[in-house]
Amino acid sequence: MKVKYELLKNDTKTSSRYGLLHTNYGTFETPMFMPVGTLATVKTLSPEEVKEIGSGVILSNTYHLWLRPGEDIVNKAGGLHKFMNYDGPILTDSGGFQVFSLAKKKDITEEGVHFKSHIDGKSLFLTPEKSIEIQNKLDSDIAMSFDECIPYPADYEYAKESTLRTLRWAKRGKDVFNNDNQSLFGIVQGGEYEDLRHLSAIETVKMDFDGYSIGGTSVGEDKVTMYKMIDYAIKYLPKDKPRYLMGVGEPIDIIEGVIRGVDMFDCVLPTRIARHGNAFTRYGKINIRNAKYKEDFTPIDNCDCYTCKHYTKAYIRHLIVSNESFGQRLLSIHNIRFLTKLTEDLREAIKNDNILEYRDNFIKNYRGEHENTK
RNA sequence: GCGAGUAUGGUGAAGGGGUUAACACGGCGGAUUGUGGUUCCGUUAUGCUAGGGUUCGAAUCCCUAUACUCGCC
Question: Model-level pTM?
Fold first, then answer.
């Protein structure tokens, strides 16, 4: 089946909304945070741990799985769920972002994108049709349109040309899409320009996708610009479809996104910073490597996760400093739980009509001078 | 006991008379937003075993002491 969004409550003071996402693998509340499992694994965690944390959807990656092991192998395994033993919903990114983020030399044409493999330097050619074909075979629950992520800043002419091309690519992808068990989301681009975001949103919605995402954010722009990009696009998105802000995962950005009406977020941040020794806390991000935690025998935060229930900062610091993978795992568990819990709290706040107070209080703690951060 | 050699930061070390002592590791901080899984960036010796001397100028040359290493009795 296709995913279905069910709107249960619209906040009166903000655009935030509480709802349900019905999927092949169950129903999940929104707003939600989706951890990233690029190579068919949320790095360092087992699928059971991901579920225990409370994550619903996880994001995996078309580009990476295309290169290795190849979509045919995943397909032979019985699809991505069976291959990786995850019986929850999976969303696959289209590969459009990888063209932006990891191809040093790329050649974008109307037909598609020529670029070099990050693994062996081999020349690759990815098109909207190819991306959809791969995703159909991977058999994720939600496939993404193949888009171009416009860099920031981008001049208007380029942004317009690229936005129009992404619209044509969206149509081409949708035309070849062939998997009744899978949904397809469109992606709004348009850079930092209001009229282009407007145009992109209107035209993407006309194509009638199962959900809509806002792309091209968190590519180096300041926060004010990012929030504007959301505002410009989101008012043209239908109320009865899920809205997904791609690549955003800083706690405050998630809150601001929710207030603007976003339902879904994904980000590498919790797992990436975990591997580098950082942890989210209510009082800001901490670097567990800091010498001040050497003899700190308290948990990372007042948190209900496995890590905080059983382990101290001093121990995790020791593991991270010693480059032990268990330390990366413990921090990944905590960080994903932190963002998941954040969305749980945001849902409660929407239900209780106090999301603005929640935001102000969160920011005060997160940014404020607090003894725990000193 | 005799002879020879070496002494540079937390570690391995470069520099063999001329301004701010290379580089690496480690330490200490920071970064990271649709993940190229151990990454990137910044910082870290006012001082070269100690004392004395030569010189305009010494980590670099000389003397003494000390420590360590190797060889011989």
Answer: 0.94
